[in-house]
Structures are given as structure tokens and as C-alpha cells.
Fold this sequence. Notes:
With 219 residues, the protein is of the alpha/beta class. It has helices at 18-31, 39-45, 50-60, 69-83, 94-103, 116-123, 149-158, 173-181, 196-201; strands spanning 5-8, 15-16, 89-90, 107-115, 134-138, 166-170, 185-189, 206-208.
Amino acid sequence: MKIKYAIFDLDGTLLNTIESLIKTGNAMLNDLGYASREKSEYQQFVGYGAKNLVKSLLIASGDEKAQQLEEAYQIYMKYFEDYCVYNVEPYPGILELLKNMKEKNIQLAVLTNKPHQVTGKVLDTSFDKDTFAFIQGQNSDFPRKPDPTAALHIAKILGAENTREVIFMGDSDADMQTAKNANMVSVGASWGFRNKEELIANGCEILLEKPLDLIPYLS
């Protein structure tokens, strides 16, 4: 079936945002008297929303029941307003891939568990305003990935009549599960924050080594 629509995860898929997450998270931890955490930990903790990231950081730092979660989350979001674009950049080949897809009249959208209030600001660092037909970050309107509700809502807005005309690209278990739950074509971004084994184990149908490897599948 011909691919007519594409929904992308943001962190670890379109943009390398890990430095912004580390800077924000460690600033929050330091404010609470905890030591900074390592990059490898952040790569495992991201993917299920900012509050879940904060919870994981607290537990790793010794707050085993995350009793400081609400206070920590407020601190995190205060810093994130400034740091959300820190050292953010598109992965090599992403800009070329999106250009190619738009030339093929494939409609593009973004679905991320990143807080919605900063999602547009982060995307604006690297993409033109008209790149994506629809953008949805985490807010109270939809449950987080891997729940398929938001993905199906986006597909409907884009005009998809068959979910198998839609690819869902991401770099984590949550993304592959979202694609499966929405009956979309799951595309794994192996350049992201997780490993190939996790993508395959969670139902990846097309595994990409680099973004431009997707182009042959679009014909």
C-alpha cells in the first residue's frame, strides 16, 4: 500500500534533544541536592513524558518512592522553558528526508510525549513553519503514547482512510507500540536514544540505519 502520511516522534527521531534534557534534569536534581545523572540514564528514562522522566531521575537518585515528584516536576518545567532548545539539532539526513517526502505529497505530522507548550518552540529551531500539517505534544487532551488515541486523531485530521497508509516513526518501545496499537506502519529510528533490539522486540516493521534509508519504501 502506498504511504500517504507520516507521523514522527520528536526526541531521538527528528531532533537530537538529549543535551537539553540532561541540562534541565540535572539543574532540577542539583536544586534538590542530588548529584547529576549520566547521559546513558537519560537515554533510558525518556520517551514517556517529562513527568515520568523526573520520576525516574528521582528514583535513580535515591528518592525510591518519588515523594518529591510534584516539587521536582515544577522545578523541571521552570528550567525547561529556557533549556528546551539547548544544543538541539536535527539528525543528519532528516531535513533531506522531509523535503523528499513533501515532494512526494506525503503529509507530515508530529506526535510526541514532550510537553505540548514547548513542542512548537523546539521544532522551530530546525524546521520551517509549514513543514508539519499537525503537531501534538503531551497535554490533557490525549493520553500519552503508546495509547493510539492521539495517533488515530492525527491520521483522521490528515485525511487518512486507511491506517496502513500511515507510517509512524520513532526511536523507542513506546513509539513502536503506538504504531502497532493504531495499526500503522512502524518505522524504527535506530539513530535515536534506544537500541535496535528494543525496536525489533516491540514490533518494528521497517528498521532504518539512517533517515534516507526510508526513501525506497515510499515509492
